Amino acid sequence: MISTRFTKEFGVDYPIVCGGMTGVGTAELIAAVASAGALGFLSAHTRGTPEDLDEEIARTRSLTDRSFGVNLTILPSMTALPYDEYRDVIIDNGIRIVETAGANPAPHLPAFKAAGVKVIHKAVAVRHALKAQALGVDAVSIDGFECAGHPGEDDVPGLVLIPAAAAKLDIPIIASGGFATGAGLVAALSLGADAINMGTRFVATTEAAVHQNVKDQIVANTERDTNIVFRKFRNSARVAKNPVSDEIIQIERRPETTFEDVAHLASGARGRDRVLAEGDLNDGLWWVGQAQGLITEVLSCQEVVSSIMSEAEDLIQKRLASAVVVA
Question: What is the pTM of this model?
Answer without folding.
Answer: 0.94
